[in-house]
Amino acid sequence: MNTAARTIGISVLSALLLGPVVSFAQDSKSAALAAELCKLLDERKLDSVAARQAGDQYVGALYFAGTQLLVVRGKFGSAARMDDLLGKKEYREVYMDLSGASDLKTRAFIMDLGANGLRFKREDNQPFDTVDVGGKSYQFDGEWGRAKMSEDEYKKTFAATDEDYAQMLQALIATLKKPS
Asked: Are the C-beta atoms of residues 86 and 98 closer than 8 Å to each other?
């Protein structure tokens, strides 16, 4: 077998063996939704949006064009205040209230660096996404060992967090798509 054929064979074998890992790593439910939300915010020249989500929970986002999307969700002591702010489209106020005074047990805070959805791991020395949920912090940098997690725990945590984030983004998108 010549060198070129051996190199092609190794490349094909590597692709077959690594294919499932790569596809899982790139499988982000939140990526397309984050892109859609950012596009809507850009079109409307907004830097924040908020919504009621799943009964007594609220979600708010602060957007820094092209660089990051900060999203917080949780229960808030005064639903009347939240509903009033939402009615007035005072989205930044909702975000601020949720960031500082929402119920810690129900709060989820996502720092989507790149405003491109959650990423399974750090790519090319780019910043990585972080999530605070249920009193725990997670870094999605692909280094589960440093986080004292097994690879399976890391994958499950990423998948659950990404799904939750996708639901938050859907609520925010729905708010922007509502007729005025």
From this structure: no
